[in-house]
Write a structure and sequence with these properties.
This is Site-specific DNA-methyltransferase. InterPro entries: DNA_methylase_N4/N6, SAM-dependent_MTases_sf. One of its GO terms (molecular function) is DNA binding. Keywords: Methyltransferase, Restriction system, Transferase. The protein folds into 2 domains: 256 residues, Vaccinia Virus protein VP39 (Rossmann fold), CATH 3.40.50.150; 136 residues, no CATH class. It contains 19 helices and 10 strands. Helix content is 47%, strand content 13%. The strands form 2 sheets. It has an 8-stranded mixed β-sheet, with helices on both faces. The protein has a two-stranded antiparallel ribbon with strand order 7-8. The chain has 447 residues and is α/β, with parallel strands linked by helices. Bound molecules: S-adenosylmethionine. S-adenosylmethionine binds next to β3.
């Protein structure tokens, strides 16, 4: 019988790659203060969509400013990619700084958020569409109150009414849906979804789709404060139509400000893909180079932390409502998406660590292959604890990037008032300046 080898962190080859002193490195070293609160960091469209694992907008802003100031990238000739784009923090900051940008992510909600948060919408057109949607929601939400609303009811489309009733019946009979949503909320979400899917797919519809997916968690029984959804029996009941209307109204108000702060000529786009897929990443980069007549001058990215649980199941309530939004989800099924996501939790064996670093090796090899000579790859990465021992993940990243051919030009550690929740505090970074403590690092590599 095979004897299972015991896991010893000190013998792990990736851990061993972190065993050097930062003082031995000849690059520039800085300390960045990022002491703003979450609400101070959530300006403009950063606030559109709650996304777990965001990095502070100020970090994205500071990195891009650094690259421009140091003449590393030229706005006229270069574009930037975030290959772990998440909800588009880098892309929003790139647009504000006047730099073309592209995001890659494996989470369709992240890709949708990137696309909507960076687009300059015609607000009067959006408001007109919103008047129509709002009218429909009001009508079908009140369809049973015939005495009060008989004049409105006359305009009810029987086919749509039946569609909504049938779908509501089907979902209310589904125990998984009933576990997470009340009958009333299911019916209201069916009304919103039906109304959105009646519209042709367009950039405009994406705006309202994002608002729809943004409220799912809030109107469910899931705890608001936890990352992974768990039922909270005491949660206050919320009205889904009201929550959606509030969300869209806020988004519309912000869009005016966003349009004044940005220039519509500055391009931004996002793609659903695994960053470890060389052909797909190379095709996207080549297509963007061709279209924009620009080079890939820099990559700014923030991989999930080692020992940080996978993100896709965090969005499982939203995925329950995703059927029919084909343009957003492309051809990948939930299971394919889940399988392509980088896995890094729980870290209690060599295989888990290997999987994490092999994925990153492939993702940054793709970056190396596609970046122009002299281009930069900036990685924001924090340390973690494995079996109560410090793993200086950022140092292993330095070794990995050097093995790929990059040179480390500069690094910064950062402070933060952000992300020090219970989970982060115990397992990730405590962000002190003490030697031998967990650190959050910003690494600037040059090709
Ligand atoms: C730490 S988050 C990035 C958050 C982002 N910086 C932001 O501010 O929203 C890491 C991201 O990596 C994405 N991811 C995981 N596996 C991936 C893969 N194989 N290809 C592309 N993205 C992936 C996750 O979906 C998640 O959005």
């Amino acid at each position: 019988m095979a004897v299972k080898k015991l896991f010893d962190l000190h013998e792990n080859i990736y851990y061993q790659k972190s065993q050097f002193e930062i003082s031995e490195l000849e690059c520039e070293k800085e300390f960045w203060n990022v002491d703003e609160t979450i609400s101070e960091l959530a300006y403009l469209t950063h606030d559109y969509f709650r996304y777990y694992g965001k990095f502070p907008s100020k970090v994205g802003k500071m990195i891009l400013e650094d690259l421009i100031k140091g003449n590393v990238i030229d706005k006229e000739k270069d574009f930037v990619i975030d290959n772990y784009a998440g909800s588009g923090t880098t892309l929003v900051e790139a647009k504000l700084a006047g730099i073309d940008s592209v995001g890659l992510d494996i989470n369709p909600f992240a890709v949708l958020a990137c696309r909507v948060k960076t687009y300059n919408y015609d607000v009067s057109k959006l408001r007109k569409t919103w008047n129509h949607i709002h009218g429909e929601l009001f009508k079908y939400n009140n369809v049973d109150k015939e005495d009060l609303l008989s004049c409105v009811i006359q305009e009810v489309d029987d086919k749509k009414k039946r569609r909504i009733e049938e779908k509501t019946r089907e979902l209310v009979a589904n125990t998984e849906f009933l576990k997470w949503f009340s009958d009333k909320v299911i019916q209201q979400l069916v009304i919103i979804k039906d109304t959105l899917l009646e519209m042709d797919y367009s950039k405009e519809r994406e705006f309202f789709d994002l608002g729809f997916f943004a409220i799912i968690r809030r109107v469910s029984y899931a705890h608001d404060a936890e990352v992974r959804p768990h039922v909270n029996k005491k949660k206050r009941k919320r009205d889904a139509i009201e929550a959606f209307s509030k969300k869209i109204t806020e988004m519309l108000d912000t869009m005016d400000e966003w349009n004044s702060a940005t220039c519509s000529q500055v391009y931004s786009n996002a793609y659903l893909t695994s960053n470890a897929d060389l052909d797909r990443v190379t095709n996207i980069v080549n297509q963007e180079k061709e279209l924009r007549k620009k080079e890939l001058g820099a990559v700014v990215s923030h991989p999930p932390y080692l020992n940080c649980f996978d993100y896709i199941p965090v969005y499982k309530l939203k995925f329950m409502w995703a059927e029919g939004f084909e343009e957003i989800f492309g051809e990948m099924s939930y299971d394919q998406i889940k399988k392509s996501e980088i896995k890094s939790y729980p870290v209690n064996n060599d295989e888990a660590i290997e999987r994490y670093f092999v994925h990153n090796y492939n993702a940054y090899r793709n970056v190396y292959n596609n970046l122009r000579d002299g281009g930069y790859c900036c990685i924001v990465i924090g340390d973690c604890t494995v079996k109560k021992e410090l793993f200086s993940v950022h140092k292993s990243f330095i070794t990995m990037m050097q093995e790929l051919g990059f040179s480390l030009e500069k690094m910064a550690y950062r402070s933060t008032a952000y992300g020090t929740g219970r989970y982060a505090y115990n397992f990730r970074a405590d962000y002190s300046e003490k030697k031998d403590s967990k650190q959050d690092a910003i690494l600037f590599f040059k090709k």
